[in-house]
Amino acid sequence: MSRVPGWLGRFGAGINKMGERLDERRAEAERAEEDELSAPPRGAPARAPDPDPGARGPDEPAPEHDTGRVPAPPAYAPTVAPRPEPVVALPWGLRVAAEAGWRFLVLAGTLWVLMKVISSVQLVIFAFIAALLITALLQPTVARLMRRGVPRGLATALTAILGFVIMGLVGWFVVWQVQENIDQLSEQVQDGIDDLRRWLLNSPFHVTDGQINDIAKSLRDAVGANTDEITSAGLEGVTVIVEALTGVLLTMFSTLFLLYDGRRIWEWTLGLVPAQARPGIAGAGPRAWRTLTAYVRGTVIVALIDAIFIGLGIFFLGVPMAVPLAVFIFLFAFIPLVGAVVSGALAVVVALVTQGVFTAVMTLGVVLAVQQIEGHILQPFILGRAVRVHPLAVVLAVAAGGMVSGIGGAVVAVPLVAVTNTVVVYLRAWSREAHLAHTPEPRGATAVNSSPAGD
């Protein structure tokens, strides 16, 4: 036999060694993968070794290494990104809306609780507000007397007594005039109703006598059906009178103390304000008081002018109870917009049922003329810029005040809005100045770049 060449034997031996090395590497890779799968997770306690492998029976299986644990995914599995936090996942606009929403809910709840508290002590609140308005009207007189050397106590007593006497005389005069003229007014109203009935019968509206009788019968039936409600309203009137007297007494006492010791009451109130906000509130308080004083004094002057000129107009037109109507016009002038409409309508109705259509039209002309002069000349000239409030704000404030607290709410709505506007404007300016005062001045190139162009 021929012998195999030496190089061919060496080549075959090399291939055999290469195959053995590939088998060894494959076995090492499998062992490494098994070790990776059986390794405990990071941070988990190490697995205790089997204490006695020989103690197990031949049929007893070896303890599982990964009991209760999901094996880790293999290396070729795709990487899954972790889920973001819910706050980060929400859109920015939705997060802002949610943040603002719960704050608005807290504010709404606070306002609701505050309104409940105010409604439970409504008499005290209105008495104090009335005392503030009267004090704003009388305080300049106290200051004038003190400048002339009158002691504070005596000046307060004289001013308060004179003010309350004048207001009491006005109320007594109105009641006296109504009682004196009520009989004559009733007769004139009856005559006016008869004239109105004849006018309707002869008018182009073709109203028949039967239709007028049906309307009158419906009114009588409505009054008879509501007798119990009218009686209960009369009984509740006693409670209203008692509450009114209580409110008058509270108003008088509060006015006396505010006139005599208003400065110390204000200083005590400032002590309840946090120290950080105290300087701003201390500056806003006097400005709010000046606004309230200007509003009350201007409203009194405008109401007096309205009452005098409208009263003179209806007096010369022959409308009965001209003086009580003028007083009603004066009192209703403290309710902006609504008071002028109600008092003017009352004067026109009295003129219609007592003097006829022509006198009612003339009365309406007088009322509209005086109110136009008031709105365009008197109020801007007398009230000035101190209490300038947009007419829309006045209408909304009067409507909201009337819905919440009736006539009293409508009266205090506009001065409250005027004072709030003054306080907000001042606090905004004060906050801006305080921020600029604590901001360091620019230096170097920054100061040159931030300086005005005209410097």
TrEMBL record:
Recorded topology in the membrane: Multi-pass membrane protein
Annotated region (Disordered), positions in chain: 1-77
Assigned keywords, A-Z: Cell membrane, Membrane, Transmembrane, Transmembrane helix, Transport
KW Transmembrane (keyword) present: yes
Domain of life of the native organism: Bacteria
TM helices/strands, residue ranges: 154-175, 238-260, 294-319, 325-349, 356-373, 393-426
Principal cellular location given in the protein's record: membrane
Compartments, record wording: Cell membrane
Family in the record: Belongs to the autoinducer-2 exporter (AI-2E) (TC 2.A.86) family.
Protein name: AI-2E family transporter
Naturally occurring in which organism (per UniProt): Streptomyces endophyticus
